[in-house]
């Protein structure tokens, strides 16, 4: 696709308009760089909104040149096209191939899931339809022509739809500030000369490693076929030494059964590595990015053309609605950025699933298929159950769900403790103790959540010493009085919520102590009454914070004994489970991360040495904790900071604790260093738990932005987690688990309502919810 060439340039400010259109926000002279679907569709929409516009599309390739073969569009996108341009929609409808099934082939076993609803057509045909519509409307299409360098000066608006390798984006890189992230797989776009019956995923376990085929029909006589594998597999198989024809022939042989012995076809196809494109800004002056120039999403969720078309719809609508070009471009970015970010998170989850495909090969066959279908978190247990109840019931049966029992309400055993369901009330600091003693607040807070149906309710981090508190309001287990107060809580839970277990999380604040309560100023030092801090190394958590003292050998011994003494009190207080807090930058976490442990003795340096003290503490606690009661460990699986704990480190940390007797690993992330850059999103920490579970075999607790019962069912049934810990949802609704049972129509031992509450066990009626109105509607 064409783009301005040459050195970096300066775009004209969006607020100036030498051509003086009747409304500043509706530019009359528009240049579109790139003749792909997004650029062409933007041209048709803008011309229809104002036929007086002078619109030119610049495309460096010939009109019938295209890369790739088929295009998949969702019903949502087609609905937007139908309302904005019925003529284009009608033309598309005539050429669409539609199907409902997804076939997954693994180890010679085929599993089919139906009810998904796909529509596809050839990319070349899509371009022909848009070319015809542009010409009907009077858009000037210039093929085999490079876009002039001075378009921002000579036009009111320049739309850069020049693809993933956008020269426009590079020209104004200082303004757009792009970030391009390469990934671990190589892939190649090819085609077969017959239509597959379904969207097909097929796994080939070769002597060189795992390879996968993605395929779907796009015409009555053709299908798109994508072959993908990790970089090291690609090299081991010798593809780096093969030319295009040889590569295609080799791929056809590997997947001969799927291809029915037919050859594969190429269209100047080359092996490439997918890159995720993110831009800090989408517009600069009167230049705006659209489609792959602005953002990319991995092909495994089929969203590149979809996003570009939706960008065009939103941009046209914002230009119509806003008074100035500057306002319109800002509104366009504000509208589309969250949608794109959500899609990119889903796409990244999908591409990483395929990158790590080898981890899942030994899953039971139906669970493997379910895991693949739900990899992006866009398809979930609940909507898959609606699309294909027979398939979902088969997966549940294989998993061991009794009839009518959602996965989240199946029991799970940890050592001598059997949890009635897979829901955990995650540890949440309440900062409401006095002198470390839990009071009425803790009784009501934890008691209410125990009555709410969770399988396991966890305390906040309970500190092992007065100096190990985060704030003056932190609870402790360093005195007998504190232990007696905790006994009051555990007695209530065991008596009034007999199906619920209660666990204690033991920890020491380390360098993050002596601070204000969260609502008074999180991580801010106390104005008075501070206490001295200790840590693995003498590094403050924040530049203005208190610098801790590096622990000596004697200090390490004292703290190890404090943990053991607190564990003995916890056992006498009646807790069912104990979790050792080795996450979030607190003391034990500080030993694990290379960013916070700069020691040069036996407790610093290599990962093995950084693990030494946390493992010594674990062993001391396990030694005094009753043998039949389980112990878990919470870790930060990444520091979200360069040079910190990596995903590979996290696997080894989990493996070490499991070898020492940890019954499960509670997998969190971050909060280790103040300058972290976490990648938030729906269940964003679960991939770390998933990796640990499938690499080490240790049970895992997933935590972090898991907010719906559908998320829990999906994660458990896919085998990504054994338990799911939820925090904020239980602050919003103490009876979250019981309400989840009611909403799913479940009654049974996994969610037994307390007798006084049974009258409320049916879901209340709700009012109707109207569907959103079409984004842009134009006549035929």
TrEMBL record:
Q: Please list the residue ranges annotated as the NADH:flavin oxidoreductase/NADH oxidase N-terminal domain.
A: 408-741
Query: Which top-level group of life is the source organism from?
Result: Bacteria
Q: Which InterPro entries match?
A: Aldolase_TIM (IPR013785), FAD-bd (IPR002938), FAD/NAD-bd_sf (IPR036188), OxRdtase_FMN_N (IPR001155), YqjM-like (IPR044152)
Region of interest: Disordered: 1-27, 749-780
Residues annotated as domain FAD-binding: 156-344
- Which Gene3D superfamilies does this chain map to? 3.30.9.20, Aldolase class I, FAD/NAD(P)-binding domain
| Name listed for the protein in its UniProt record | Bifunctional salicylyl-CoA 5-hydroxylase/oxidoreductase
Q: Which organism does this record belong to?
A: Streptomyces venetus
């Amino acid at each position: 696709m064409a783009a301005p060439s040459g050195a970096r340039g300066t775009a004209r400010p969006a607020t100036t308009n030498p051509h003086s259109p009747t409304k500043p926000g509706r530019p009359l002279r528009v240049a579109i760089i790139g003749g792909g679907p997004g650029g062409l569709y933007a041209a048709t929409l803008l011309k229809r909104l104002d036929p007086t516009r002078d619109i030119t599309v610049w495309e460096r390739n010939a009109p019938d040149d295209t890369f790739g073969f088929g295009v998949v569009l969702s019903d949502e996108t087609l609905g937007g096209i139908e309302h904005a341009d019925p003529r284009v929609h009608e033309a598309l409808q005539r050429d669409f191939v539609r199907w409902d099934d997804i076939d997954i082939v693994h180890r010679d076993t085929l599993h089919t899931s139906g009810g998904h609803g796909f529509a596809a057509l050839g990319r070349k045909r899509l371009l022909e339809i848009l070319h015809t519509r542009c010409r009907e409307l009077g858009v000037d299409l210039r093929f085999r022509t490079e876009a002039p360098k001075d378009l921002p000066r000579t036009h009111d608006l320049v739309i850069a739809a020049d693809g993933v390798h956008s020269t426009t984006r590079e020209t104004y890189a200082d303004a757009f500030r792009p970030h391009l992230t390469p990934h671990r797989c190589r892939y190649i776009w090819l085609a077969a000369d017959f239509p597959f019956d379904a969207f097909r995923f097929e796994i080939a376990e070769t002597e060189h490693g795992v390879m996968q085929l993605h395929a779907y029909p796009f015409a009555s006589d053709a299908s798109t076929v994508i072959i993908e594998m990790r970089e090291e597999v690609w090299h081991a198989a010798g593809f780096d030494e093969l030319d295009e024809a040889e590569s295609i022939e080799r791929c056809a042989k590997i997947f001969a059964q799927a291809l029915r012995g037919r050859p594969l076809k190429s269209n100047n196809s080359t092996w490439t590595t997918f890159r995720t494109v993110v831009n800090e800004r989408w517009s600069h002056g009167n230049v705006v990015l659209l489609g792959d120039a602005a953002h990319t999403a991995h092909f495994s969720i089929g969203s590149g053309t979809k996003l570009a078309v939706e960008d065009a719809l939103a941009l046209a609508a914002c230009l119509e609605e806003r008074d100035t070009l500057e306002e319109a471009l800002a509104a366009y970015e504000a509208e589309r950025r969250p949608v794109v970010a959500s899609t990119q998170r889903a796409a990244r989850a999908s591409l990483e699933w395929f990158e790590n495909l080898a981890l899942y090969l030994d899953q039971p066959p139906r669970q493997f298929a379910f895991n693949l279908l739900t990899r992006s978190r866009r398809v979930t247990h609940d909507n898959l159950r609606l699309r294909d109840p027979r398939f979902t019931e088969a997966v549940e049966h294989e998993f061991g769900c009794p009839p009518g029992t959602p996965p989240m309400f199946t029991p799970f055993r940890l050592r001598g403790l059997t949890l009635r369901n897979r829901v955990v009330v995650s540890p949440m600091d309440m900062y409401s103790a006095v002198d470390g003693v839990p009071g009425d607040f803790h009784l009501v807070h934890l008691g209410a959540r125990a009555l709410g149906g969770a399988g396991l309710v966890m305390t906040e981090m309970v500190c092992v010493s007065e100096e190990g508190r985060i704030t003056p309001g932190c609870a402790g287990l360093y005195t007998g009085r504190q232990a007696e107060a905790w006994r009051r809580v555990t007695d209530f839970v065991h008596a009034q919520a007999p199906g619920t277990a209660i666990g204690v999380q033991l920890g020491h604040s380390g360098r993050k102590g002596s601070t204000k309560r969260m609502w008074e100023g999180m991580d801010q030092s106390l104005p008075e009454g501070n206490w001295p801090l200790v840590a693995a190394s003498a590094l403050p958590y924040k530049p203005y914070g208190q610098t801790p003292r590096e622990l000596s050998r004697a200090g390490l011994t004292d703290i190890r004994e404090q943990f053991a003494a607190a564990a003995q009190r916890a056992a006498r207080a009646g807790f069912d489970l104990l979790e050792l807090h080795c996450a979030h930058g607190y003391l034990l976490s500080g030993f694990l991360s290379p960013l916070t442990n700069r020691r040069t003795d036996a407790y610093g340096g290599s990962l093995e040495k950084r693990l030494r003290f946390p493992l010594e503490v674990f062993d001391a606690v396990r030694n005094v904790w009753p043998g039949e009661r389980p112990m878990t460990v919470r870790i930060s699986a990444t520091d979200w900071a360069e040079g910190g704990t990596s995903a590979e480190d996290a696997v080894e940390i989990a493996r070490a604790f499991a070898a020492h007797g940890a019954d499960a690993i509670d997998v969190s992330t971050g909060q280790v260093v103040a300058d972290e850059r976490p990648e938030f999103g729906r269940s964003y920490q679960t991939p770390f738990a998933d990796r640990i579970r499938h690499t080490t075999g240790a049970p895992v607790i997933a935590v972090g932005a898991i907010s719906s019962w559908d998320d829990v069912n999906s994660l458990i049934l896919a085998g990504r987690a054994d338990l799911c810990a939820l925090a904020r949802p239980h602050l919003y609704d103490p009876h979250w688990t019981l309400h989840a049972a009611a909403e799913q129509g479940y009654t049974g031992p996994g969610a037994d309502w307390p007798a006084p509450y049974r009258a409320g066990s049916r879901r209340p009626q709700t009012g109707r919810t109207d569907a959103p109105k079409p984004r842009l509607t134009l006549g035929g």
